[in-house]
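Dear colleagues,

For the upcoming journal club I promised to circulate an example of a predicted protein-ligand complex. I picked one with guanosine-5'-diphosphate because it came up in last month's discussion. The inputs are reproduced below in full, followed by the predicted structure.
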Amino acid sequence: MKLHEADAKMLLVAQGLPVPPWAVARTPEEAGEAAAKFMAEGTRRVVVKAQVLVGGRGKAGGVKLAGTPAEAEEVAGRILGMDIKGSLVRKVLVGPAAMIVREYYLGAILDRASRRIVMMASAEGGVEIEEVARVTPAAIHRVAAHPFLGLHDYQARELAFAVGLGGPHLREFVRIARGLIALMAANDADLVEVNPLAVVREPGPEGHVERLACLDAKITLDDSALPRHPELERLRDLDEEDPADAEARHYDISFIHLDGTIGCMVNGAGLAMTTMDLVKQAGGEPANFLDIGGGAKADRVAAAMRLILGDPKVEAILVNIFGGITRGDEVARGLIEARNRQERDVPMVVRIVGTNAAEAARLLHEASFETAATLDEAAGKAVAAARRAAGGAR
Ligand code: GDP
Ligand code: MN
């Protein structure tokens, strides 16, 4: 689950990291009022930023500066309602604009290959890191945090020196780097990015001072760990969520959309993976990973069917159920019910073994479903059916 910048910044603040203040506005008027409030406190310019769950807002025109409340209102009016990479802007963040001296990149990801949180820093800040990785990979510096000890001071200092941050900023950088790693552990995040992490100039009692500030924040939380963080789950933006993902979550179905044409409905993650492998071996491409979980009842089977058929590329469906806690007859009833209701007629091949398989076979036979005894046979039949369907359409 991705967090909006404003919510991500809240987690940074909770770690004591330096983030300029902000307000969230849903209308141009609210943005103007927020700007007026900051300006009454001495701010000369504000920044207005689109709150959408995609990066590159700056390039897309979703980040703008304003010098008066009226200008902030006008700018917010242009940003709200904007379409940025397919996301509709419904909220903007308004805050005092920082005077940027230099931009850096600082981020951390859960790296499955090394089984560690890897922190990355680059002096090429403000630019999307994927772009830096492509053009100048040597400009990205990495260190791996210890799973139990976190990020050592010396590792953070190594990163700071690598990107050319020294002097007074060294200590600030170390605190921010360690704070981000702590934030990941505390919130079960698998990605944190501060881009730009910036040296900003601020008026002080004795002239200007320069210090580090986190001007943008991007956080992705581990969905599987969300039950441990109900307060974070509440931050989910349903407006920006794929409706299929929302339905899958509602019915407790693990569903991952893929590019192929064979829809797969399976119980158990391991069996689902095996089923996908066998589809490939039979010469097809799976359209999805779908695990209906244990003990699925008819309504969950019907929901799974809707999810699969929601993908127009699906040419055939392969159902592979190994009945244990899940009862085969219950799944068969769900399939029959779902087929009676479905709008699109897609060939289906069903293999059900285990608990109540005989009853399932009887029901499916009566409803003239195509069945298979083994997974190999089922995969072969599904791939052949998809080929026929594709051929017939042409
Ligand atoms: P992104 O494009 O979605 O990553 O959005 P960012 O929040 O990173 O903003 C993009 C760019 O806008 C930054 O790299 C900065 O150059 C600029 N920017 C963002 N906030 C400020 C600010 O407070 N002051 C100034 N002067 N520029 C800003
Ligand atoms: Mn950014």
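Two points we might discuss: The first helix runs from residue 5 to 14. Residues 47, 49, 55-58, 63, 97-98, 100, 103, 126, 195-196, 215-216 surround guanosine-5'-diphosphate (ligand 1) (CB under 6 Å).

See you all on Thursday,
B. R.
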